[in-house]
Amino acid sequence: MKRINFPSLMLVLGLLFIYLPMLIMVIYSFNASKLVTVWGGWSLKWYFGLLENTQLMTAVMRSLEIAFYTAIAAVALGTLAAFVLTRIANFKGRTLFGGMVTAPLVMPEVITGLSLLLLFVAMAQLVGWPAERGMMTIWIAHTTFCTAYVAVVVSARLRELDLSIEEAAMDLGAKPWKVFFLITIPMIAPSLAAGGMMSFALSLDDLVLASFVSGPGSTTLPMEVFSAVRLGVKPEINAVASLILLSVSIFTFTSWFVMARAEKRRRAEISQMLQMQSVT
């Protein structure tokens, strides 16, 4: 009798625990019944009903917009922070700066949200900005939170890079900014993409920070879903969640495919250059 591989069994059970609820949610998004726990046959009416649910669709578009801008800002700020932590050798405040950058990773979101709320209220009283809390304050809060993740991911990639390539480019007369954009950025592009996708997902999923720093007319999708769940899960929520899951899956697969081809092309070019150097 073949013995059961315990690690493989635990892996399968763990994957089922994660993905089986998502599969059930997708199936019940096609449920014709108004009760999400009672199967009433297959139907697409809840997907078509999303077009009429303007409140939910507005929250979806608002969350996607905030997540998009958060990903861009977090990648830019996180990359700069990673360069400061890894490339400036005589930076005396590296330990303090590194702790400040990574603090949101271990700080409870309740404390972060309350601190940002007090900051925005104090700024509004002192300088008159922000006049009201809304998408801008949510974007700032999410950027503050997601920058830490990007900084950690990019820092790990920068520590693995071969500095001889950048030094060779500068020895040949390339300016530092040109080396950064033409050599360093392509080499750390996978980590930038990973940090951007992570920031997008974290911003789209956040509920606690948005609840503290949002105002009237700036409800995000998690806030809308959380408020609706108190009265019972509506079938439209299953439908919109399934669409988001499909979109994220397609985007993730496309990004992985593009980065895999780019990495394969880069390795082929490097091997070709090494062969040419060996010949000469």
Automatic annotation (TrEMBL):
Record SUPFAM superfamilies: MetI-like (SSF161098)
Main location: membrane
Ribosomal protein keyword on record: no
Keywords, alphabetical: Cell inner membrane, Cell membrane, Membrane, Transmembrane, Transmembrane helix, Transport
Taxonomic source organism: Aeromonas molluscorum 848
A GO CC term attached to the entry: plasma membrane
Membrane topology value: Multi-pass membrane protein
Pfam families per the UniProt record, alphabetical: BPD_transp_1 (PF00528)
Protein name stated in the entry: Putrescine transport system permease protein PotI
InterPro entries listed in its UniProt record: Bact_Polyamine_Transport, MetI-like, MetI-like_sf
Record-annotated membrane-spanning stretches: 9-30, 66-85, 97-124, 136-158, 179-202, 239-259
Compartment(s) of residence: Cell inner membrane; Cell membrane
